[in-house]
Write a structure and sequence with these properties.
Shape: globular
Number of domains: 1
Radius of gyration: 19 Å
Distance between the termini: 29 Å
Order of helices and strands: EEEHEHEHEEHEEHEEHHHEEHEH
CATH class: Alpha Beta
Number of strands: 14
């Protein structure tokens, strides 16, 4: 699929506001963007600055990311993209060159990522540190190339403006003995010997949640400065991406600056499988909670993305 398109400095959005896209090249898919709502100039939502860290690994996730950027891209935001180091060098070069004229899109390719392994923690921390070093944003949203917004940029900015300084996480306590837990509260093993047997880094009570989180700038600074050496040993016992940020968050001062929130809609099927299902039918999204900001595994260029744009992104 051809990604080539002509960039435009300013684009008028659905609600009459102006969207500054600078030198960003809107793809053919993105020509449908006119129905999408953006913050009005000078509004509280317009003052929100976001950092997006996005992980891609092949042509399909690149296309998926491009279509997401067609929706969320504005010159005021920051975008840090990680291309898996195992991808062919010419693919990394293509992605880098494609965005080289867009000053707020930065492409890194430092780590070969294996999902659920410690390498994903390494890659994420590099992305977060890069974003922190640039700074100037309110919230850092972690995505993969298969993610697609199910809320308009206006709705996303409104949520962030109403929750300034908060981190969004759906994490819950994890009990080493696997006793029954409810959604937001659980049990931990109070015996330190028990926690040590289970390899809890720094002997901390464990918290588990979705990898797809939205982190405040202050917590992201704390996270990248936090020593995670013990987590590399612990990674053999768990899917590290579901534990390390969550445990560090809820064992720090920042647990008081957290909003319980699921950022990403993922269909795991029933009974839940090891891998999320592809989202291909609109009824899957119509049944989901109205709180999610993004959905994962939405096929690039597919009818579901168009359905989302027509029914959800005009608000």
């Amino acid at each position: 699929r051809d990604l080539t398109a002509t960039g435009s400095a300013r684009v008028y959005a659905n609600n009459g506001s102006e969207r500054d896209v600078g030198h960003y090249k809107i793809s053919h898919f993105g020509k449908l963007h006119g129905a999408v709502s953006y913050p009005a100039v000078g509004s509280p939502e317009d003052k929100v600055r976001l950092a997006y860290v996005i992980m891609i690994h092949d042509a399909m996730t690149l296309l998926g990311m491009q279509e997401t950027l067609d929706i969320v891209y504005e010159t005021k935001h920051l975008f840090v993209v990680h291309v898996d180091a195992d991808t062919p060098r010419n693919f990394v070069d293509f992605v880098t060159q494609y965005y080289e004229d867009v000053s707020n899109i930065h492409v890194l390719s430092n780590v070969s990522v294996q999902w659920g392994a410690s390498s994903i923690m390494t890659a994420e921390r590099l992305l977060y540190k890069y974003a922190v070093d640039i700074g100037g944003w309110d919230l850092c949203i972690t995505l993969c190339g298969n993610a697609f917004p199910v809320k308009s940029p206006l709705q996303i900015a409104r949520l962030v403006a109403q929750n300034k300084g908060l981190t969004f996480s759906d994490a819950r306590r994890v009990d080493p003995f696997d006793r029954e837990q409810n959604r937001w509260e659980g049990y931990e093993c109070l015996d330190k010997r028990c926690r040590k047997v289970h390899g809890s880094p720094d002997d901390l009570p464990l918290f588990k949640g979705s990898q797809w989180m939205a982190l405040s700038l202050d917590f992201t600074r704390y996270l990248v400065d936090y020593s995670v050496s013990d987590w590399y040993n612990h990674s053999v016992e768990c899917c590290i991406d579901e534990y390390y940020k969550q445990t560090i968050l809820y064992n720090s001062y920042f647990k008081h600056k957290t909003r319980p929130f699921e950022l990403m809609f993922v269909d795991w099927g029933w009974p839940p499988s090891a891998h999320p299902n592809l989202l291909t039918a609109s009824d899957q999204l119509s049944r989901m909670s109205d709180t999610f900001l993004f959905a994962r595994k939405v096929i690039p260029g597919g009818p579901l993305r168009r359905w989302i744009m027509e029914t959800r992104l005009q608000r």
